[in-house]
Structure formats: structure tokens, C-alpha cells
Amino acid sequence: MTRKEYVSLILILGTLTALGPFSIDMYLPGFPAIAKDLRTTVAEVSLSLSSFFIGISAGQLLYGPLMDRFGRKRPLYIGLAGYMVASVACAFATSIEALIVLRFIQAVCSCAAAVASVAMVRDLFPIEDNAKVFSLLMLVVGVSPMIAPTVGGYVTAGFGWEAVFLILAGMAAVILVAVYFGLPESSKPDPSYSLKPRPILSKFLMVIKEPQFYTYALSGAVSFAGLLAYVSGSPLLFMEIFQVNEKEYGWIFAFLSIGLISASQVNSIMLRRYRSEQIIITALVCQLFIGSVLLVGTMFGWLGLFSTIACIFLFLCCLGFTFPNASALSLAPFTKNAGSASALMGATQMGVGALATVILSIFSNHSAVPMAGVMAASALISLLILLLGQKIIKARGLQYEVNNSAAGAIH
């Protein structure tokens, strides 16, 4: 693979990975406007975010088997086309119920991009490079929250929240063209792969039974829930509690994303000296400490706008180390079933994240305490899962390395 081909693949896979974050973040500044136009509350509007997460979780279980059966690109074309239609429909929603349903459909379609991008990393790159490639994708994903809410704030202020969904439809169209012309088919169709429920469930069960998968996929998913809790709670936190406007909110969101980007790139450098297993446990301990400071400070009213931003910034820095290593370690044991494994990993992440946002909506009390509580709890539970899972892996002698020459071997 030449340098030019390598960069091209990373960019296209990055845009596929970025479609989900754009779909999540770009309309966040419009929450108050949507609530006003659809005659509801910001807490009710946040349920459209929860339905999106549920849709991604369910959809990835659908696209995983499809991509193992028909190859990566054909299901991806269908998903991107459906996403465009659903996005346009969201722009013309006349009730919060309709928006919630349409966001679910939009999510189901968008997760074709999420599944394909993760599976193609496993298909196209050597296993020892997976963690580094995921870190590069995190750079692209990290830029998305910097751009999306900032652009969304200006678009909402100038043209209304409906325009955001029309822009998302256009974005999907551009990505579809790039995939068609610039992305190779990384997995040949497998006619022997059955799409009947029993064989599919059997393959998923094979993935789930792998200790390294369930340890790092679940630990990473619970940690990731802290990020989704922040995303869901940030409109209330910044625009209602701290009274910033749509444009200011976009810039705050962009600044906070720098933490995620910077840490993910530092992670690539640290992988030259440390193993993924070492990095992830250190990051989770730090994440728990920062989450606890945020929770206690919020409960007792010790944190203002800037100190709150500082705590969230550091929390996201920890996630920049946790996510790429958890992803690489989860997929390391798999070759043939990489599509099913990536789908299960993504479904776990978004399913747990959806649960976190629903909990946040239920306990919403017009304060930042529920958001901070979910963030701190996610770090604690994630660390406990990791410690227990590592004991099981060590006891069974089933450790798959991801960042040395012995990658893929069982130690």
C-alpha cells in the first residue's frame, strides 16, 4: 500500500466514521428552537437523541451480518441512500414524536457507515496497526464535534434548525460518491454466510463468548456512555444553566473536542512504548477521578462555567485514550467474523449510551447533577468491568496483542 493510498483510505474511512458524530452534534444548538417550534421541552427533544442512539445500536446488529454476507460496499450504499431520505424527512417533521421516529430511522441507516468503517480497518490494515489507525480515525471523529455544533449554531441562527438536516443529507451524498469511486471492496461476498436468524445468532454468540471481546467491548462501551451523557446534557448545561447562546455553545463544544482529539493522537505515540492494556487502565483511573471531581463540585455548587469546562475537557482527554485501545483490543481475536464483531461492539457502545441518555432524561431536574453523576458512574463501572475481565483473560491465558510483532497470537 502506497502512502497516497494509505492517506486516501484513512480520509474516506474517517468521513464514514464522522457521519454519526455529525448527525449527533450538528443539531444540538437547535434544541431550544426545536422545542419552541414543536411546542415541547428541551428534555423531550433530547429523546430524539436517545432514539438515534437506540437506532444505531439496533442497526449495527443488522448491518454486521449483511456485510459479512454481501461484502462491505453494497449494504453501505443502501444505508447511505436511506440516510439521505430520512434526513430530509427530519427537516419537515411537524411534531416531536415524528422527529423521534425519523431520527431512529436515520440512525439505523447511518450505522452502515459506522460498521463498515470499523470492519474495513480490520480488513485493510495489519492487526498490529489497528490501534494506530483507530487513533487516526479518532482525529477525524474528533474534528467533527469541533465543526458540527459550531456550524450547526450558525446555521440554526441564520436559517433555522431544519437546514441542519438538509446539510446532513448533502453530506451523505458526497460520502456516497467518495465510497463508490475511492474505497475498495475489502471483503468478498460470502454466499455460504447464512442470514437466517439461528446462524446469525450463532455467530454473534461465538463473538460474545470470547473473553477479550466482552471485556474490552463492554468496558469501552460503559466508558463511552460518559461521552454520550455529556453530549445529551450539554444543551441544558450550557444554554439553559449557564445561559450561553447557540453560537457560543458551538465554540465551547468545539474547544472541548480538542481534548478528545489531542489525547487520541498522543495515544498513537504512547503505543510505541506501552501496550494498549497498560494505557487503557491508566486512562480509566484518571477518568474516574475527574468524573468524581465534576460530580462533587456540581453537587455543592463549587464549579462555575470555566471550571466545569475544564473538568469535562480532562474527562474527554481520558476517553481519547480509552476508546481506540478498547476498540482494537475488542477486535484483535477476529478475522473472518470481523463484521459481526464490529457490529456487536458498536451496538454495545450505542446501546449502553442510549441507556445513559434515557436515564439522564428521566432524572432531568434542570441542574447538571444528573449529567455529572452518569459521567462519574460510567468511569467507575467501566474500570470494574475491565479489572474483572482482565482477571478472566489472564486465568484462561487468552491474550491477543495488538501492537507488536506477535500481534494476533495467543499468549
From TrEMBL:
It is a multi-pass membrane protein. It comes from the Bacteria. Coiled coil: none annotated. It is found in: Cell membrane. The chain crosses the membrane at residues 45-64, 76-94, 100-121, 133-157, 163-183, 213-231, 251-271, 278-296, 302-323, 343-363, 369-389. Pfam families: MFS_1. InterPro entries: Efflux_drug-R_Bcr/CmlA, MFS, MFS_dom, MFS_trans_sf. Keywords: Cell membrane, Membrane, Transmembrane, Transmembrane helix, Transport. PROSITE patterns: MFS. Residues 9-394 form the Major facilitator superfamily (MFS) profile domain. Belongs to the major facilitator superfamily. Bcr/CmlA family. This is Multidrug effflux MFS transporter. It comes from Pontibacter silvestris.
